Amino acid sequence: MDKTLHIIGGGMAGSEAAWQAANMGVPVVIHEMRPKVETFAHRTGDLAEMVCSNSFRSDDDEQNAVGLLHWEMRAANGLIMHTADKHRLPAGGALAVDRDPFAQDVTATLRNHPLVTIDYGEISELPTDGHWIIATGPLTSEGLGQAIAKETGKEALAFFDAIAPIVYADSIDMSKAWMQSRYDKGDTEEERTAYLNCPMDRDQYEAFIDALLAADKTEFHDGETAGYFDGCLPIEVMAERGRETLRHGPMKPVGLTNPHQPDVKPWAVVQLRRDNALGTLFNIVGFQTKMKYGAQTAVFKMIPGLEDASFARLGGIHRNTFINSPTLLDNQMRLHSKPHIRFAGQITGVEGYVESAAMGLLAGRMAAAEILGQTPPPVPQDSAMGALIHHITGGAEAKTFQPMNVNFGLFRPVDGLKGGRRGRKDRYKAYTDRAKAAWTDWLDHVKAPETA
């Protein structure tokens, strides 16, 4: 039997899976339809292109579940985390990435690997034999999506994911805006001033909410319903849930002091995060939207400091596709009906760049081990990796399965620890200590790839 691993999709999951498998000695072919077949969200043919936020979120590996996932991927010599660290941007306690150099670097690294081949072209049918990983992500092509739906006997699940706008830095009025991370978080001055803040008083906020609610929105096609993922709600949907929702969400004013008016507490604050290493682009944090382009320009220019803003990219909305993994996949991420096919990344129902790459890491290792005749031990459920894979392959309720970020709610409780908010710090530290020990032990029992 052919010992080559074929991976459909060169996003975060596909790129990481290829790296892990190739470094275990398995030949890999990445099948990427871009740039021959484009999507509305992608701009290039690069692997691991970031199409939404440029943030990998919190990098705190002791008190945050996604930070713990960063730690586990670094411990496994993951390509995505190694490259993200090389192209890191100031973002307080978060890990933000200079998106274009990041994708170019991932592409070059895989292209130069002696065991990796990149085949540009669309695959629209499920393969009948060989070793395969489908990592096509939320923008799976129509042909392959139909083939998956036909095989599983179920309609593909879908939710709508919105893209935040990006503003040119030199068009922001710094006589109204200022640079500060919330609570001055960060170890360096650059980190403590990583975010650009635009303050609103109460009247400005109320007018902004009125404009959001009245703005023209993107219409859905017949038969489509808006089942949004709560971690990426459009701002106008949040506003519809209550006029104070944004002020207690992405526009919360806590932990910030306006140096232009230090004695005046803002009623709300819009934050922007640097989007490239040059500092010429900033994305509006948490401002995913389905407003039409004309409405976006008018509404966002109501924000103090953005009255004359120029936009490098306006927001958008797209349909994301994922499978009902708890019913369709085994604990090795193989399709029950066709076990020569594994799934990885967002299409499995994990949400976020890091989670997608993590599932690619596991799928790549599992597939390579199978090809090499190895039987690695189960991924420990007490690790962040294990908590995620357990959730998508059986831990979640199939009837209500929805995309999920990694979070401590997926972890098994640690006995003897206090519950509630007061015990949270000790509890989270116990989770991360236990996870690191479990993950390190697992890595000691599997063949680890060489450093990126």
TrEMBL record:
Keywords: Cytoplasm, FAD, Flavoprotein, Methyltransferase, NAD, NADP, Transferase, tRNA processing. One of its GO terms (cellular component) is cytosol. The keyword tRNA processing applies. One of its GO terms (molecular function) is flavin adenine dinucleotide binding. It is found in: Cytoplasm. Its cofactor is FAD. Its EC number is 2.1.1.74. FAD binds at G9, G10, G11, M12, A13, G14. This is Methylenetetrahydrofolate--tRNA-(uracil-5-)-methyltransferase TrmFO. It comes from Roseovarius bejariae. The gene is trmFO.
